[in-house]
């Protein structure tokens, strides 16, 4: 069931929900207060490792493929390095830097205002489609374009059409070419199709995508292969493989964020007069975590802590693990479901939904904890139609460090 | 010492490196070659200028000279008297201050020196004096400022210096000494005590070797502040001298008044510890921060930077006085006014310094 009032859904009293909000605020304040040298060292170390992997990957492929003896191991190692570099850059570094998680360091080289990530989508468009549209309107039907990305039907409340029969195929294509799917995401193709998109804005965005996409393609498919001389084909294939590695991995991680069964959807009634505490609650109910060791979490940009990330999108990702312990305690205290499970289970549920929802609702049963609300045509909203951002939500609110400035 | 600026941003050097960099960044896009090179050697980048602390020389109990080796992109052709921005990472956070360069400019120099006094309650200055070890990497901003000596120097000079205000003057004296062009100069140097007088021995040596340099020392803890009326017998021809004054704000205010009263304020050159944003502000308006989606009402006296911080936007900042350009953001629409000189910026997508501008009507920034 898409939820129209989180407070009522959770049977929480006014006092309880406000208390929950205050307790979540307190966690934020504590983490902000304690950010320091160790956190800065973490992100700097990670950036060093990621750039080191990039150099190692490029050199291994360029030089190692020249001799027949080293070719096979060089391709294997080089592709792996390159794939890991792209994954780290996109997930734990780029995504999180663009959220402003590291802005507090006041380092212009690691700042959300000018970070450009190593993928086809221009950072500016990502910050709009993801930081604003998705994080503000998380899982609200018709408002959050991330429910199926305009390609897949991911909620029973979305109307079925014969187009959806092809979902398993679209899904396959989306995962393989995920980078390009993301690149086109902020264009909002559904609204273009309905002739609702401002043509001037569309042209500007397309130009931006074209410019960045061209540079990305030039690098991986022209310049580096050319530098390998006779082995250009080997390098080109290796580069393509590394891009697909990154595409598949980021696709899996991202689909585990909001599509497992426990992640709920919401109706537009929910966001009318939503308070900060209710916004917090919607983030908990709308997101899903997965479990794993520290390495898995780093490789997935700490999005295994999707719930914590949605509560505090701009707190440093290396802190999500410790935040998660406290959020779980709160969830237990207020009897709020906290969705988590192993990665394969979470992805399996998402995949099942993709397949089930490719056919009309009546053919399959729902796996959500609650029955779905009746289907209704929910047209996608433009920015003008989305309610004005509620100031107090403070998704990006950051403590200023006036205390340091006096010195 | 901290300093003020009304000059435009210094151009980054346009060497061949720039062209090489543009060619190579096809390989490193979306990053720059610098982003990889600085992993090999932190000084090999022109993206954010860096420097390595080579030596920390204690000058007095509470002041030290930092010998810094700047990395790529630095220019050693600063004018004596100018300041440079220095950024240090304290508790993970980059903090910026500006200090006069106390070393003389050198054509083929390899290091620069800045001299810092730890101010009471001055968290950053204390860190600079006591917390830096050789090898530490700092960030730098290119030299700037118009508190400089013309070349050739005026025939008659008067320096009025208080405390750590000696640092830009020291760069001037060292340059004049090295070039052998020291003219008839009088230096009046106030310091709380003899122990706290920075460069005391070096100034003594200079005075001993140059007949044309006269030095007056004043220890204000025991002898009281300089009475400007005393200038008439300390330096009877002060009205004929080009005067360079640097020191605490009240001292400079008094000197300005004194020179204005004598009608010779055009002979007076000042360097202040901190900026006074005295200019006319904008009329205020609502400032929208586009990417964070925050909007804040701001009056004509609140800088865009302060308004953003009040709204909880993670605004980048550096010196907070219009020198280092760390705080520069893109003004998407609307208009802002520079508090220092009243200049207005209103071109679409114009970069503006948020720390010294206020809103003129509604405006939108890209952050």
UniProtKB/TrEMBL annotation, chain A:
GO biological process: lipid biosynthetic process
Coiled coil stretches, renumbered: 10-37
Organism: Nocardioides marmorisolisilvae
Name of the protein in question: Fatty acid desaturase
Domain annotation Fatty acid desaturase: ranges: 75-340
One GO molecular-function entry: oxidoreductase activity, acting on paired donors, with oxidation of a pair of donors resulting in the reduction of molecular oxygen to two molecules of water
Region (Disordered): 361-407
Family matches, as PANTHER family: DELTA(5) FATTY ACID DESATURASE C-RELATED (PTHR19353:SF19), FATTY ACID DESATURASE 2 (PTHR19353)
InterPro entries hit by this protein: FA_desaturase_dom, Fatty_acid_desaturase
Keywords, alphabetical: Coiled coil
Entry annotated with the keyword Cytoplasm: no
ATP-binding keyword on record: no
Superkingdom, taxonomy of origin: Bacteria
GO CC terms of this entry: membrane
Automatic annotation (TrEMBL), chain B:
Record domain 2Fe-2S ferredoxin-type: where: 285-367
UniProt xrefs under Pfam families: FAD_binding_6, Fer2, NAD_binding_1
Molecular functions (GO terms): 2 iron, 2 sulfur cluster binding; metal ion binding; oxidoreductase activity
Cofactor: FAD
Record has Iron as a keyword: yes
Keywords tagged on the record: 2Fe-2S, FAD, Flavoprotein, Iron, Iron-sulfur, Metal-binding, Oxidoreductase
Domain FAD-binding FR-type residues, every copy: 46-150
Protein name: Ferredoxin reductase
Source organism (scientific name): Nocardioides marmorisolisilvae
